[in-house]
Write a structure and sequence with these properties.
Shape: globular
Structural class: alpha+beta
Strand content: 25-35%
Radius of gyration: 15 Å
Length: about 160
């Protein structure tokens, strides 16, 4: 069972089937365990890639907030994973289903779940806004995530 805000390893089969143009973040042969899953009501799991390149994304957040206002950056969020800062790459989020989630990312055999409620709320809020902007046609991410979502819903 997929738990919201858990970290997951995604099966390469997902990328083979839904990312033929290679516009999603690289899965690195199932070695990128850093996808934070946000479960939606319709059975779709929105996967938010994570990055250790925090300084790079802090600069992007600062630039966005200088232009749009404090807390208005929907593309990135800096939170804590295992006690260390990580960048949540919300602008690179994509839909998936449980079928393509290979396994949870674990520490000492225990699935890792983001528990900090401030981080959880911030990621959920930004992801919701990002998806709404994509649905309304105001944002156009590299990958056609709405097309992927539609295909996944058809397969459910």
């Amino acid at each position: 069972m997929i738990e919201s805000c858990g970290l997951y390893i995604i099966d390469d089969a997902f990328f083979s089937k839904y990312d033929r143009d290679h516009k999603l973040m690289l899965n690195k042969n199932e070695c990128r365990p850093h996808y934070c899953g946000i479960v939606s009501d319709n059975g779709i799991v929105w996967l938010v890639p994570l990055s250790t390149q925090v300084d790079k994304y802090k600069k992007s957040i600062d630039a966005s907030e200088a232009k749009h206002g404090k807390g208005k950056c929907v593309f990135y969020y800096i939170g804590k994973i295992k006690g260390e800062e990580r960048a949540f790459l919300i602008g690179d989020a994509f839909p998936c289903t449980e079928v393509y989630i290979k396994k949870p990312f674990t520490i000492a055999g225990i699935p890792y779940i983001v528990r900090n409620q401030k981080d959880v709320a911030a990621v959920r809020q930004r992801l919701s806004r990002f998806i709404a902007l994509v649905r309304s046609g105001k944002l156009h991410p590299n990958a056609n995530i709405m097309s992927i979502e539609k295909a996944l819903l058809k397969d459910i």
